[in-house]
Each structure stands twice: as structure tokens, then as C-alpha cells.
Request: fold
Amino acid sequence: MNFTLRDALHEDLDDVLALNEANVPAVGDVGIEKMRWFCEHAHYFRIAVADDRLAAFLIGLRPGTSYESSNYRWFCQNYDDFAYVDRIAVSEHARRFGLASRLYDDFAAAMSEVEIMTCEVNIFPPNPSSMHFHERMGFRQVGTIDYEPGAKAVALMERRL
Reply:
């Protein structure tokens, strides 16, 4: 399968939102207004397209953005500079083609002046495939946020670039 990576456009947002929602709880639930905000403010918001269909997307931020995510704010409080992966989702038809790795590599290349990439992975509810993927990509856990003990918690991850 051949994929084309390109910047997300406003006309892509309905499809991006549908893909995001299809991947909840692995990614957080958001509305169209938040997707529009990402389209305007994210340092990186790219999509992968194959056969004129949305295959995947990745949204990344740098410090200094007015984003109110607790996970993002944790990194802002603990790091001077970083490239933060807020969310990534791959559609069912595009899985197992290395697309997530390709998006992460593209994000790292776009943030070439940054030495650390950060993200979070759900540990409650558990997401073992995501944890395995991130560990394979060189991420290591540097913290935890426990939102609802035994119900919602994330592992805060970093990868030295």
C-alpha cells in the first residue's frame, strides 16, 4: 500500500474526527472544535492518505501552546523543550504497514532541532500494543498520571532523538 503524507486541511477534519473517535479510548475523545483548534495551532498535524482515503494522522505540539491537556502540561512543567505527540490514529485498513512508525519519523524530522519526543500511553485502561510499539520505537516511561485510580491512568513517555 502506498501512502502520501501531507498537512491536514480543514476539509479533512470530519474524516480525522471520525478516525479519532473510532480509536477511543486509545486516544482521547474530542470534538470538531478541538480538531479545528489543532489545525490552527498544532506545530505538526499531518495525515496519511492511500487511495484517496484517510489512513492515519498524527498531531504534535511544542512547548508554549495554550493547550490545556494535563499530559501536555506535565511535559511543559518538566522539560524545557520537547516535541509532544498528542495523538496518533491509524485506520483499520491501513494497519501493519509501518504507517505509525513513518509518521513518528516524519514528526521527528520536522522537529529536527528538538532532542526529546514525548507522548503518553494508556495504562488504565491498558493499551499493551501501544506500549509495546512505543518501547520498540525507543520510548521509556518517565512518569505517570493517575486520573481515576484503577480506571484511568497514563504512562508519560520520552524518546531521545
Summary: Residues 66 and 117 are 19 Å apart (CA to CA). The mean pLDDT is 96.
